[in-house]
Amino acid sequence: MSTFPPYSETFVMREIRELRKQGWDVRIGCLRPLHRTPVAQGFEDLEPVVTRARWWSLDMLQGLLVFSFSCPRRLFECVRLMASSLTHPVGFAKLGYLMLASVRLAYRFKNSSVTLIRAHFLHSEAIAACFLGILLKSPYSVTVYTTHILFPDTVIRKVLQGARFLIADTDQTYRFLQEFGCEGAAIHLVYNSVDISDFPRRNRQPAGPAPLILAVGRLDAKKGFEVLLQACGLLRDRGLPMKTVLIGEGPERARLMAMRKSLALEEHVELLGQRCFAETKSWFYRATLFVMPSVVAPSGDTDGLPTVVIEAMASSLPVIGTTTGAIPEAVLDRQTGFVIPPNDPDQLADRIQCLLESKSLQVELGARGRRFAEQRFDLRQKAEILSSLFRQYCPAREGGMNAASTNPNRAGPDDPPREFLEDPPYA
Q: What's the whole-number mean pLDDT along residues 255-279?
């Protein structure tokens, strides 16, 4: 991981915790000593297995010396990978640091029986896994959550080609990896998941002076929260009673606050800032509906499948999302929620109004979303699938089954369970 424990990657740490429950000896190696996102709370039980990062340390120097003399060819192979980004100075500098960080981790774990090196995200983590795989002569795998690449294609292609197997968390990333030239047999679709037991079934819709619209996410451009504010302005002008709560922190806060003021929405929209998991979960059960108005950012960055969408579905909230990224793989239009085009405040306002005016529709869509989350996005099932993959691909764990054949939730592109293809509650 880049850092530990980042607030934006709690789903990774929950997965690690679940794998440890299943008996796997998982160690966490950090690449950066500083957090770029707020720190998450509640993962103190993983602290003993974390190797913290250092900008520079004695074991980094010792690692360079040991690998230079004991296996210079491996170190040279790492340098060659780094050199493939010479035409991108910023990327080359980042790769240089990643190689040093990987040398340090490889030195720390050189006497351990490392069965598999895992990287979450096709970014710095994947490149470091490749370096570690070369230095330790161990297999590595990469879990891919987004189609947005931050390093040169030549580097990413070499990283993907060297992986023992790849995990795509959505059909979107599965297709992306295929188009990138990866072998289909080495790609496994394993959906991002949540611990369903963390989200008890909702017994009734919340009561309050006004319906509550909830949105959760980092305040950056790709989340599209400015579209939600515009929709709230339209709903206010239509005379609909409502309140919107936005949970999250990020670089867009000042712009969103200014926009709220310009639209005169101070009484209707509240930006709460960052909240811990327990407090955020409590808002799921106070809300009437959940909105994820994701867009494609000017940089080209986009959401994959935000974990908060799955959490909202698990808490039986009806969800309104956009066609951006992999959101439609969880939010089935008119069956478990509504899916609209991005950057369309009018359609967003219409769908919100439709839900606010029909409590029966809120209950039906929420219940269907909960069932779908149980079928496709259960963390325990995901951990079992991952365990099967580890046994299949890791040389020290022979005799494993093909996890793709044991996954009851494996669906092909545009292939939701049959239950969700019949009798939609809204037409």
A: 93
